Amino acid sequence: MPMFLIKRITMGNPSLITTLLLTLAKNLSPATIKSSVVQEPNGAYVVYVVVVAVFYYLFCLVGAMAFFILYYNPQKPNYDVKEFAVKSFNLNDNTLETDFKVSVEADNPNDKISILYEKGSMFDVSYQGTRICSGSGPEFLQPTKNVTMLNISLEGKNDLNSNVKDSFIENQKNGKIPLDIHIYVPIKFALENSKSKIIDVMMKCYIEVDSLKRDKKSKILNKICHYKVNF
Question: Which of 6, 21, 29, 116 could make an S-S bridge to 188, C-beta 3.0–4.6 Å?
């Protein structure tokens, strides 16, 4: 701005000089000068710090996992269908009413880990793809190094088509009745004062029994079971 204009403005408004001087002093304060000369952190240094932090985190994580495996030695539980009993079996016309009891052996081989059986388990028996009965298992805490027999009651009332009904009757006469057993059980590993997330146990068994007579324990002629534990 030309000097004569500044002189004219300041003479007309004396306080303007004070305002201009204060503004100039603020812009030239030590903090402003310091901030203008400080450089931004080097990009390579920032990357180095991030990489070191990530490797440190991974090292701690791997160390914790190694300690857990070596100390607790976790092993998956084992399951097997041991018995199949018939409480009631009524086939009238095309309606089938059943009440079975399936005994499943649950083996916890761990010596430092208990197993908590949560609610929401599902057991069902089907014949030629048709579910004929279902039930659920108990909620309980299985201690270490323990084998528990789960006695599951399965009930159902279903309408069968004529082909399935005729096949059922024929299998009864021959003394070889094929059945599929499906099992789903949610469990948690209990470690002292902590628990794991939900672990899904799924099992499928194909069995062949000699009869389905009321109040009789069926003889299991053949059995093929597969199960998996989803950690």
Answer: 116
